[in-house]
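2024-03-11 09:14:02 DEBUG pipeline.ingest accepted 1 chain
2024-03-11 09:14:02 DEBUG pipeline.ingest length=691
2024-03-11 09:14:03 DEBUG pipeline.predict start
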Amino acid sequence: MAALNPDQLDENRIAEELIRQRRSAAQQVERIRAWLSAPDWKTSYEQTVRRRCECTGRWFLADRRYQAWRTAQLRGKEPISVRGILAVEAKPGFGKTFLTGIIVDDLKAPDGPLHHVRPEKHAVAFFHFVARNPDTHRSSMQAFRAVATQLLETHQNDRDAMHQLAFWIEKESSGQQQPSFDDVVCVVRILVRHCPTFLVFDGIDECYDNEVFLAAVYDLCSSEECKILLLGRPSISFPQEYQNCGSPSNWRVSLSDHENFEDIGGFLHSRIESMASRGLFGDQIVDPTVIEEVTRRADGVFLWATLFEQFLTSAALAPQERYDTLHRQNHLRGLGALYNGILHTLTRRNEREKTITADIFRWLAHPIKPLSIEALHTALAVIPGQPTTEAQYLPNFPKCVSEITCGLAGLDSYGTPVFTHRSVKDHLQSNQCVVFDFSLFDESAMHAHLASRCISYLAHDIPKQPLEASELQQLRGPSTSSGASLRTVQTERSGDSGFYSQSSDEDVPMEIITDKKDFETAFPLLRYAVLCWPVHLSRSLTLSPATAQNSQSSQYAAHQPHNTFSTFTITEFHLGWVSVLSQFLLDRLAVTAWVESSWRYRLPPNLSRLVPLMERLHTSIASQKNEARELGWVILGVKELRDALNELRSNHLASLTAKPSLIWQRGTQSKGSQSYWPLWNPHTNGQVGSR
């Protein structure tokens, strides 16, 4: 074989060196991306792009205020009102999230805003705040992590930008394993210096640390070559420094009802034509002139148009009803009237269907921790006081949610059931809905209702035996297993039984893995029911004026916007949990399985704070003799269980932490609790052995 000449050797070395450098650069980018740990920002955007109607939103792209913002020179001595910030405000349901996608696409277009000014590249990044995803899409940190990661992708082949960023991270960042908020903002600041940058943030009214976010936006725009567009409700209050932006008319754009009139009309025209072609109006001929009148009913709210379409196509309406709804002038005008019209239609269903619909609303509105799809499916099947059967599970779940609720709830971009819009929950919680069975106005009753579901699940649907497979094998019993736990932390709030459930990527402890079978796959509501029934019950009692007598509880209840002391009465709905909890307390095997599960989930159960709340309720319903008598027996049972639990924590903390199933064995029995906990005897085929 002929030897390579020196020139060929040099070319090979250069090629190898280039490959090595590219690999090293790619690894560096991946390390920074992992360090930033951004939430998903693409899925919501992609869903809006798929769902939006063709040609909508062009009126905004032609707006002179938007045009002035997008094409203005980024460098120079112009005031910040010209250089940086544009706030776009519109009422709930206007279509701001869809407008965000249209704006992002416009800014990313090859002939975008800087095409005629500066031919070199420009960067675009965006983020949607979503109140229903508090763990990932509701904080300023999450927003800046997302845009920092997008800018990192834009500049990953820019050697100068990557070198400067890597040097700063190594020498000047906080040095933490996870970046601080200031670290993330500095990453954005470094990257925007390398090309003109546009940042778009939607739903800023749903950001829970809004002041921090808006202050960071102002600082960024006032010192860097960056433009930021904000979309939100008119209720947003901007910090004082924004007065330096000049007159609000220069940088705040309030969108009026008429501006998307043509978009709404085009949408309704195409949808109503489609309905007519499918025969949904029977033999009736739709008057073409009705479209304009129906469009006016929307009052500039695109959400109204989409819900109106779903309402008309609902199987709950007969063809003549659809036709009459369409042609009755000013019928269901405005979002509130449409919501009430849908709720009125839902009341015509049978009792079981109405119960499921109401339960969907309750679980979506008041979970302690958002339920997984499987857990919600199970929760909706539970009927308090009886075992859950296969026949009680909803078919085609979760796709059926939209049909069941007539469009008031549906699936988000991840396929998880959610309210169609934040305003749906607001309306259900308002006093306008108290006449409907689906009302969420009384939050105390809602938590009582959910507590009874959780307790019933533990009493009737969970095996009454040791739960951990390896320990069961040691006991020669049947083999099941347990899954990962939520992390819970103590809180000072008296209403939460001493605990408040929380979860994050950093907080979830390591999963307990057992062989063969994942217990939580078979019982998806177990973790939630185990950890959250005391929290639901304590919140119900704390929110009730009947029990909110101490200053801290009263203050907490008084600040709940959906409760009214003057009209409050104790009803059967508030006390539904009493009989369910009574059944649960009488079944020592079920109680012991709950206690074992609680220890597995790293939260030794504590009922101490429930007792005084129950006693106050008992005093307030003394005139209701039957209810008071049953509640009195339940209080005695809870006190007995409380004392037994306190004894476990005092005398067996270490052993039960290491091996929760010891509660079923003689090793945990002591003088104070020897008669309370049952002894599991695997040799009697699941019977409880004698002591």
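2024-03-11 09:14:41 DEBUG pipeline.report Confidence is low (pLDDT under 50) at residues 469-517, 549-567.
2024-03-11 09:14:41 DEBUG pipeline.predict end
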